[in-house]
Amino acid sequence: MIRIGQYNTLEVVKLVDFGVFLDGGDDFGNILLPKSSVPEGTQLGDKIEVFIYFDSNDEIIATTTQPKAKVGDFALLRVVGTCEIGAFVDWGLMKDLLVPFSEQRRRLEVGQDVMVRIYTDKASGRIVGSTKFNRFLDKTPAKYKVGQEVRVIIAEITDLGFKAVIEGQHWGLLFKTEAFGKLFIGKSLKVYIKEIREDGKINLSLQKAGKAGVDDLADKVLTTLGKKGGFIPLSDKSSPDEIFKEFRTSKALFKKTIGGLYKKGLIVIEREGIRLNDND
């Protein structure tokens, strides 16, 4: 079955001067893949992976161009125009994506980068965008486990920290006090479930908690030392940015980790960095 706003692998059933027609099944019939998108050497019977959407005439059309996001995704997109019913954002295709006024938390302006949830409007069948996220997220209690690794996308920045959509399903919060590295709206990254509160709200962490986090980083430090000739120009005096650039971790966890390695006699902490202890 054809999935609008998604990738589909379809068979070429007809060759024409302006492109090829793909088999859209009983529901959609033949779907045009314009000549500009047809792979060189395409023949009848070939199967091509295409993205299916609506063109400027609201006709179903195929493209091999990859959009910046598909139906069901959250994405940071730029507003490129407005009209009497809403605003248009660039999602990487010939026809821009409409975000109706009714789906805007606040009026969008040209040139603004905004987080958008792409969905199919049930009434019209059209692919549109929304900045009203709550109705798309799961209201049932989350079944994540503390310490579980999940993928999130940063959706909002608040006084408390960074609100993120977890696996496209739930809200989570990364407190500013626990944030490090470059975080911004639209960034996708892996984080860990730190806490699931009694009220159902979920707190996130950029690193594994407790001993697991220390052990994981210790392995990375020792492996990196081995690859770099036994010395790394980082120590407890290094800046958070320098530490993050090398190990993608906070300075606090790095200091705790190298302290543990030092106590075990595995490394030597010098003024200019840390060195593997090769004394048996």
From TrEMBL:
Family per record: Belongs to the CvfB family.
Name the UniProt record assigns to this protein: GntR family transcriptional regulator
The record ties this protein, via Pfam families, to: S1_2, WHD_CvfB
- What is the species of this protein? Photobacterium swingsii
**Which residues are in the S1 motif domain?**
3-65, 70-132, 145-207
Domain of life assignment: Bacteria
Q: Which InterPro entries match?
A: CvfB_fam, CvfB_S1_st, CvfB_WH, NA-bd_OB-fold, S1_domain, WH-like_DNA-bd_sf
| GO molecular function terms noted in the UniProt entry | nucleic acid binding
